[in-house]
Design brief:
Strand content of chain A: 35-45%
CATH topology of chain A: Thiol Ester Dehydrase, Chain A
Structural class of chain A: alpha+beta
CATH superfamily of chain A: Hotdog Thioesterase
Order of helices and strands of chain A: EHEEHEEEEE
Helix content of chain A: 10-25%
Distance between the termini of chain B: 45 Å
Number of domains of chain B: 1
CATH superfamily of chain B: Hotdog Thioesterase
CATH class of chain B: Alpha Beta
Shape of chain A: globular
Number of domains of chain A: 1
Oligomer: heterodimer
Number of strands of chain B: 7
CATH architecture of chain A: Roll
Strand content of chain B: 35-45%
CATH topology of chain B: Thiol Ester Dehydrase, Chain A
CATH class of chain A: Alpha Beta
Radius of gyration of chain A: 14 Å
Distance between the termini of chain A: 41 Å
Number of helices of chain B: 2
Number of strands of chain A: 8
Radius of gyration of chain B: 14 Å
Strand order of the largest sheet of chain B: 1-2-3-5-6-7-4
Number of helices of chain A: 2
Order of helices and strands of chain B: EHEEHEEEE
Chain lengths: 134, 139
């Protein structure tokens, strides 16, 4: 799949992310903005973007932002909370600019608004544990 | 550590018939423990479900719980059209390649328009996820 204008393809290593990808990114204010194009694999039988794909993209994008903020520190997701505001369909470009809310010695608190053409379709908050922090 | 057997129980019925469910599946419904009880689902962790650290990817576990709670909303409330309002997932422990991963979903309350659920995901006796979910019944 061709990258949307202004984006380049994100390098993925997790087999599940490669399986559901590709995912794209572009630099914005020194941080990465992430995006994916909803295709026929990502929707349910009513043609609506599956919550599972959206949560997988959220885990990927917020996790990549934790990596960027910590110099690639190994980390795992402890918790993720998601709210589904609006549906999306095949062909839509879903975008997020992850935000770091707080970082402690062992935890990172992230959030993201996931939007299609500026309309928020999902918000996600996730808590990450830094594995080498004890 | 115990290894979860990869053998599906004989009462397993595939529910991933189309779309993203089928793409990431197969996902199965298992025989449940009856009215007012727990609804049970399963999938077998394959290479495509993993992360680079050798654990089942969190996205797959959240997808599995989303499928399990959606199906439970249909079964428990007779809903034909529904949508996820919110989910909260705690990642308790890692799932491994080859695990028979099982979800157990309990309906906390079903009103006319909403279904409130709690659920867990296990591999054998190892807990992988703890979750709550709120679904809206559209039709």
């Amino acid at each position: 799949m061709k990258a949307p204008a202004g984006f380049s393809e994100t390098s993925l290593v997790d087999p599940f992310e490669i399986f559901v990808g590709p995912v794209f990114e572009r630099r914005e204010n020194g941080q990465r903005r992430f995006a994916f194009v909803v295709d026929d694999r990502h929707v349910n039988m009513r043609g609506v973007l599956h919550g599972g794909m959206l949560m997988t993209f959220a885990d990927l994008a917020l996790g990549a932002a934790v990596w960027d903020a910590t110099g690639n520190a190994p980390c795992v997701t402890l918790n993720m909370q998601t709210q589904f505001l609006k549906s999306a369909r095949a062909g839509n470009l879903v975008e997020v600019a992850p935000q770091m809310v707080r970082r402690t010695r062992s935890l990172v608190f992230m959030r993201g608004d996931f939007a299609v053409a500026g309309d928020i379709i999902m918000t996600a908050n996730s808590i990450w544990k830094l594995l080498n922090a004890g | 550590m115990t290894t979860a057997s990869s053998a599906l129980p004989p009462d397993a019925e595939e529910i991933s018939r189309g779309g993203f469910n089928r793409f990431v599946g197969p996902i199965y419904k298992l025989g449940d423990s009856g009215p007012g009880g727990t609804y049970r689902y399963a999938f077998i962790a394959a290479e495509r479900h993993m992360n680079a650290a050798g654990s089942v990817h969190g996205g797959m576990l959240m997808t599995f719980m989303d499928v399990a709670m959606s199906r439970t909303t249909r079964l428990a409330a007779g809903a034909r059209s529904l949508s996820t309002v919110s989910m909260s997932c705690d990642f308790v422990g890692p799932g491994r390649l080859g695990d028979l991963v099982e979800a157990r979903v309990r309906v906390v309350r079903a009103s006319r328009s909403f279904v409130f659920m709690s659920g867990e995901i296990l591999a054998g006796d190892r807990p992988l996820m703890n979750a709550t979910g709120l679904w809206k019944i559209v039709l």
